[in-house]
Design brief:
This protein has 10 helices and 6 strands. The protein has 232 residues and is of the alpha/beta class.
Length: 232
C-alpha cells in the first residue's frame, strides 16, 4: 500500500496528526519549513514542490497525502502538479479556495500572541477538550508570528476552483460539521467537483477534526483506504 503522509495546517505542527500516525502503522507527519525551523513558504506552489521533493527523498514512490487546511491545499496542488506521485488524497477541513478574512491578518499583525486564544477558539468546536486547546496554543507559540502570517498569506492566494476537473486521483473529503474556517459548503464543493470523491462529515467537530474527533476521522480514512487499495 502507498505510504500515508500527513501535512499540517497554518500555524500548526506535525503533532496535529499525532492520533493518525499512532493509528496507521508506517505513516508519517511532515514538518513544513518554518514550523518552527527555517522559513515558511509564501505560496502553496512552493510548498507543494517541496512536498514532492520530500516524497522523493523518502523513496515513497506514490503516496497518499492527508492534508488539513493549508496542508489540504498543498496536497491538492501537489496532486495536480505531480500526478505520478499521487496515489490518493484525504482532504481534512480545506477547500478549493482559501480566502482569509482581513480580521485574521489584523489579529496576527497587531495582537500576537494574545490572538492565539481566538485562533484556537475559531478552529475548535465549543465542546473541544481543554487539553487540546492547550496543545494548539503550544503549536502556535512554537511556530510563531511570522510563519503563521506567511501560512495564512499562502492560503489567501490559493485557488484551484477551475482545476479540479483535472484531478484524477481517489479522494476523500473530511469536514467537521462545526468547521468555521472551512465550512461544510467548502467540502461539498470539493466533493461535487472531484470525480468519484467521497465525503465524510464529522458531527460536532471543528476545523481540526483529525485531532478533535480522531476515532471518527480514523475510521473514515481506514474505510476509504480499504475501498481504494484493499488494505487499511
Amino acid at each position: 500500500m502507498p505510504e500515508l503522509l500527513y501535512i499540517h495546517g497554518s500555524g500548526y505542527t506535525e503533532e496535529s496528526f499525532k492520533a493518525q500516525t499512532e493509528a496507521f502503522a508506517g505513516s508519517d507527519a511532515v514538518t513544513l519549513p518554518g514550523h518552527p525551523g527555517g522559513q515558511a513558504f509564501a505560496t502553496v506552489e512552493e510548498a507543494s514542490a517541496w512536498f514532492a521533493r520530500y516524497v522523493e527523498w523518502r523513496h515513497a514512490g506514490r503516496a497518499v497525502a492527508v492534508g488539513n487546511s493549508l496542508g489540504g491545499a498543498i496536497a491538492l496542488r501537489w496532486a495536480l502538479d505531480f500526478p505520478d506521485q499521487a496515489a490518493a488524497l484525504v482532504l481534512v477541513g480545506t477547500g478549493a479556495r482559501l480566502r482569509v478574512a482581513p480580521d485574521i491578518f489584523e489579529m496576527i499583525e497587531r495582537q500576537w500572541p494574545d490572538c492565539i486564544a481566538k485562533l484556537v477558539d475559531l478552529a475548535l468546536s465549543p465542546d473541544a477538550q481543554p487539553a487540546l486547546r492547550e496543545r494548539m496554543r503550544a503549536w502556535h507559540l512554537s511556530v510563531g508570528q511570522e510563519s503563521t502570517r506567511r501560512d495564512y498569506g499562502a492560503c489567501n492566494r490559493f485557488d484551484v476552483m477551475g482545476e479540479l476537473q483535472g484531478l484524477k486521483v481517489p479522494t476523500l473529503v473530511i469536514v467537521g460539521s462545526l468547521d468555521r474556517f472551512t465550512p461544510v459548503k467548502y467540502a461539498r464543493y470539493l466533493h461535487e467537483h472531484i470525480a468519484g470523491s467521497q465525503l465524510s462529515v464529522i458531527e460536532g467537530a471543528g476545523h481540526v477534526a483529525m485531532a478533535e474527533r480522531p476515532r471518527e476521522v480514523n475510521a473514515s480514512i481506514a474505510s476509504f483506504l480499504e475501498t481504494v487499495h484493499g488494505d487499511p
